[in-house]
Write a structure and sequence with these properties.
The structure holds 2 protein chains of 2 kinds. In chain A, about 40% of the residues lie in helices and about 10% in strands. By secondary structure, chain A is α/β, with parallel strands linked by helices. The N and C termini of chain A lie far apart (about 50 Å). Chain B starts with 6 loop residues before the first strand and ends with a helix. In chain B, the strands form 3 sheets. An 8-stranded parallel beta barrel of chain B has the order 1-2-3-4-9-10-11-13, surrounded by 6 helices. Chain B is globular. In chain B, β3 (about 90-95), α3 (about 100-115) and β4 form a beta-alpha-beta unit. By secondary structure, chain B is of the alpha/beta class. Helix content of chain B is about 30%, strand content about 15%. In chain B, α1 (about 35-50) crosses α2 (about 75-85), α1 (about 35-50) packs parallel to α8 and α3 (about 100-115) packs across α5 (about 145-160). Chain B has helices at about 35-50, 75-85, 100-115, 130-135, 145-160, 255-265, 280-290, 305-320, 335-340, 345-355; strands spanning about 5-10, 50-55, 90-95, 120-125, 170, 175-180, 190, 195, 210-215, 225-230, 240-250, 275-280, 295-300. Classes of the chains: A alpha/beta, B alpha/beta. Chains A and B meet through β4, α2, α3, β8 and α10 of A and α1, α2, α3, α4 and β6 of B.
Chain lengths: ~475, ~350
Amino acid sequence: MTRTDPTDVPRPEANLHFGVFFQGVNHWTIWSDPNSGSQIDPASYRQVAQTAERGLFDAFFLGEGLRLREVDGRIHDLDVAGRPDAITQLAALAAVTDRIGLVSTSNTTFNEPAELARRLSGLDLLSSGRAGWNVVTTDNAWTGANFRRGGYLDHADRYRRAAEFLGVARAIWDGWADDAIAASVDAPSWARPNAIGRVRERGAQFDVDLVPTLPRSAQGHPVIFQAGDSSEGRDFAARNADVIFSAHGNDFDDALAFANDLRTRLRAVGRPADDLRTRLRAVGRPADDLRILPGTEIIIGATEDEAREKARLIRFEQVTPATALNIASLLWNIDLSDRDADGPLPVEDPVIEKNSGAFGARRVADPRATVANWREQAQAHNWSLRETVIALGPQRGHVGTPAGLADKFTHFVREGAVDGFNITPYLIPDGLDDIVELLVPELQERGAYPAEYAGTTLREHLGLREPLTHRNADATRTG
Amino acid sequence: MSAGQLVLAVEIDGDGAHPAAWRHAAHAPGALLDPRRVRAVARIAENAGFGLVTLADDLVPPGGNPHISGRIGAVERAAFIAAVTSVVGIAPVVSTTYAEPFHVSSQLASIDHVSNGRGGWVVGVSAAEAAAPAWGRPLVGDAPARAREATDSARVVRDLWDSWEDDAVIRDVATSRYLDRDRLHYIDFTGQTFAVKGPAIVPRPPQGQLVVFAEHGLLPADLVDVALVGTPARTDSPRTFAEIEVALDTPAASAADRVAQLDRFTAFPARNRLRYTGSAEGFVALLTDLAGVVDGVRLHPLVLDDDLAVLSRLVLPALFRARIASRPLPGATLRDTLGLPRPDNRYATAQGNAR
């Protein structure tokens, strides 16, 4: 960094946005710590959401998994598992929070638009405009075994279905005129005549015909999140999402490259729901139409040394010997569960041909190159397999002092590499405490974090414009 | 629940049992969809001493022109209510005709978790033809087909609730295992129109099984905890509740006049329920008589804002004084309130026998 004038940055006024991701299935959540609480007790969810709200976080985020993870036909037993239905849990949190956004990850493959759109609308109304939807897709028959239609969807069609699904959902959310409900009990009817539009949508994935049952909320529609990292996923986000929950938040250059890629895609696409606005601008969506919040872990210490030592201990708690062997098994595509995690790396080459027996876990893109790199580094540092997994395995997170992290994050946001972070606490339910108590004030001192909520809705917190609706578009055309 | 006592349930959907009830509501029509209204009605019912509230639902509009056209989903309202109440049971209607049984199971198990064991399920069917194109699914057009979907769904939902044993989360630091996979079970259900593998993604509900309510005759007896009947007489289910539509005299108008006023807009349709129209004293006498016949009653107030107030001020206190009914106890689960035992886990029991 060679800049000297602190205002000589692309976005000198930009503020960070924080979300919290209460994870349900992963090895990052340390359950072995004596301070680790329940993953299902509603008190855990309430505490994390209320702590985040105290720290002026934009959003509380829940994931989804529609089948318990398996390895070689057996349920994966090393990580936290078992969680509430996201929208149900969030509707309960809506009653005990005032400002924080409530974001549900919900699947477009194993839901139908009329029902899911209505559930999200209900959450949006019960929270007075704080609902968000992280749109995810699934195509595997393994998950389909829990559902009426089984594994019906081709891999190639999953984003097509998601886009169509979102189109139907938006039509449902726009079904009611803003003044649809009678003002008085003496009116001729509960809803004004012709104020509720029928939704008829027929496409490759859907053939539905319904009368929506809910009005728009204080924020119009639920805010749309998207997390897919493939080129298809990024295009889907550029067209459809308000917020992208990326995996590019550890390294500045990587984060900036991702952000620039998204901005290029944004300029290239029109937004189907917003054809009027797009036509007016004659170009794609403006760059400030999409917020980028990478998922990250934040480990704080009073000094850099203390933070690094804390991070080292946390990594050893996260990557137990059994977890190290599981991660290595996924990479090698060999069952290594009987090896010694504190011994050397396996001598075998990774198996590429055979389908992995693992379901519900991410795969490594190029196992041969990754294993070669691991061997080289392990030899150079004299690392055991477990130490190698900790050093080179799935990486995430920022480690430092409150002041150091605040400087770093201010740099990230002012340079336009991120709009904020979706923070995954490694400890439930106390894991946000030091972030809220120590990091947030440092950021506020730098003017890089809000001093209060910008409004009452999730859309307002994120600084997003209101969705343009078919009804508004019609009014603009005729009026 | 003590022997001979009634458990009192109240349906709190919309503005009341009469289709035109919204015309006598004490709020502007749109307030129905306001979270403050949802919270207020649930708290009134809890403070009055009801054992549980139920929440009607379906995907299609509830009333249809000229009546109420909007409704927040019952599961979402139930979860919201769970967070602002402490002892009242909460039983949403969840329909089985087109919904995914796996989702239904997860949502209801989550209601039981967020309410710390106060959850119930009123098994619903979607008879309206408009439900099929709304879901985008082929019409399930006759009552036997809807009963088949309800039966298979209830079986799947119950199997999934047991698919985690109570102690499946072991947190065994020595072996790095969070779960004991031997205490998780594939349900491998195959029904007439669908199959579900399992196990659930939600741990076993605090009550083991939520309390399952169903119209008498819809489901096989082994799937029902509380049968809902229109004609008061005990059934082969562990508990039987009589369904009663109730219109009470208020300081402003007699019950009969109140019904007549609403009937001018739309006739109060006849349903398979008792209907009481009259004074609070007379209603207390009716319920006193029913206490020896059924285990509980589910009340459908004509207009919530009017009749819930009279029930709360006059009817329930009289029943409590006479020990015809009692308030749910602090910390009680809905099963406790109903005097139903916490069920053994079918899979744990099966394994135990095999060992």
